[in-house]
Amino acid sequence: MALAVFDIGGTSVKYARWQSDQLSQKGSFATPETFEEMVLAMKERLQQIPKVTGVAISSPGAVNVAARQIEGVSALGYLHFRPIFDELEAELGLPVTIENDANCAGISEMVLGAGQHAKHAVFIIIGTGIGGAVFIDRKLHKGRHLFGGEFGLMKPYGQTILSKLGTAVNTANAFSQNTGIQLTGIELFARADAGDEQAKQYLAAMYDSIGLTLYNLQVALDPEIVMIGGGVSTREDVITNIKKRLYHYLAAESVEEIMPEVVACQYQNDANLIGAAIHFEAVMK
């Protein structure tokens, strides 16, 4: 089975051909401003990826597969609350599946990546915001309102959501506002690496917020593995620091024996594409 796969993001749309568990003919285009322009762009790429039998899509928003529409909110409002499955199938002339982008990334890790051996798992992706996915008995748990895995909305200290406390982008913004030194997340890490104590303190607060959130998830769900994705997960020290915090919080309550495996994800930029393709294959069996 050969598929065309699309990963719709706020600024760009990635695409590729998928066959025999491999991506090829990868490319991207700027995210269109309207649904009609999105359809045209997809049609153009399908002409470049011939002989496919379906289209698999990773999308922002709460994807309601049963209702065949995308609910919730995202930066691309034109995707929401329309019969998007039916519209795309009619326009593209092929069967179409759509799943949430974080869910797709989690699926890629569970099937082909770091979570292959796991029965119960949590996947958390740390980018500009924080999202993720929950897998129970290797099945994706989406929840009654399709909000399963929206870890960025958790409030580790009861007031501010994790997406504001637990990302390098927002931690760097807080550093800049409080010090007057404008820098990016990458630059904040660089300052800490160079020995800047203030930068280290800001990153320590970020790790604390993530570790406390994972503590709450661990005692609530008891997964055997926590997989961390997003650009920061490529730094070994990030994984190490998060792991230390999680163990500390568990040990403080004398339940360190339930400490899960904490690992970086295997797939990064391709995770959403791969997960979308795997989702298609599972749905169409």
TrEMBL record:
Question: Known Pfam families for this protein?
Answer: ROK (PF00480)
Q: Do you know which InterPro entries this protein is assigned to?
A: ATPase_NBD, ROK
Coiled-coil spans are none
Record-linked Gene3D superfamilies: 3.30.420.40
What protein family is recorded?
A: Belongs to the ROK (NagC/XylR) family.
> What is the designated name of this protein?
ROK family protein
Give the source species: Candidatus Enterococcus ferrettii
